[in-house]
């Protein structure tokens, strides 16, 4: 009864105000900025806005708020945990689940919010590399790091591998995640490898047996991969905050490298 009553009441309102959707479409959302904020902002101690991303995040938050998914108080340009939860709800309403409903915006869900996009990030097709699942963007990044460092990487674990490694807290369930062998490299080459991976847009760390139940390896997460698992998103946020991405939230012990996405790296060449 309530439902039909509400629909009858809603119809005249829609007929009277058809313009707002058109007005919103005139504003353009920087998808790269929104993605960076969605990974970084939840890791911040405050509600600081990610540089360059604020206006685009606000447009996304306004669209979520207009659909009753986000309290208007959080339409502030900071893509924090409330916005992540609201975005995940939006993705579930579109019928997505798992890594497709992680709260990290993708092109389809942003477009279906009625937003016009620029700087669209695409992870490309999935394939395998050295026998491990990987997407085209991650593979291009790995090859770029290989060229920069002169090191031929040996993959020990890939992406899209739910449950493949219980010690990794699900970071390899989605896209963008790689484990690379470090035991065969000298200490200097390990640092060179992590440096090159960071320079092309990975959040990458050397992981030692003292830190967990694993062999010495390099764990790398492609920043702004739209298929990142929730735990991998958190690691990217930790990376931006200068942490190690482990449960102890320790200080980043890796090489100091300017933090960039792959798209930012490509534009810098
Ligand atoms: Zn890993």
Describe this structure in words.
There is one protein chain. The model is unreliable at 1-26 (pLDDT under 50). It is globular and about 55 Å long. It has helices at 2-16, 20-25, 31-40, 54-66, 81-93, 107-112, 136-149, 187-199, 230-240, 262-268; strands at 28-30, 116-118, 126-129, 132-135, 155-157, 177-181, 202-207, 217-222. The protein has a four-stranded antiparallel beta sheet, sandwiched between helices. A hairpin with a 2-residue loop joins strand 3 (126-129) and strand 4 (132-135). By secondary structure, the protein is an alpha+beta fold. Helix 3 (31-40) packs across helix 4 (54-66). The longest helix has 15 residues, at 2-16. Helices cover 40% and strands 13% of the residues. The chain folds into two domains: 2-118, no CATH class; 126-268, no CATH class. The protein is built from ten helices and eight strands. The N and C termini lie far apart (62 Å). The structure holds zinc ion.
Any descriptors?
269 residues, alpha+beta, 2 domains, two-stranded parallel sheet, 8 strands, disordered N terminus, binds zinc ion
Biggest beta sheet summary: 4 strands, antiparallel
The secondary structure category is alpha+beta
- Supply Rg: 20 Å
State the end-to-end distance: 62 Å
- Average the pLDDT over all residues and give the rounded result: 90
* Outline: globular
Number of strands: 8
Q: What is the total number of structural domains?
A: 2
The unique ligands bound to this protein are: zinc ion
Uncertain segments: 1-26
Order of helices and strands: HHEHHHHEEEHEEHEEHH
Q: Into which percentage range does the β-strand content fall? A: 5-15%
Count the DSSP helices: 10
Strand order of the largest sheet: 5-6-8-7
Query: What fraction, in percent, of the residue positions are helical?
Result: 40-55%
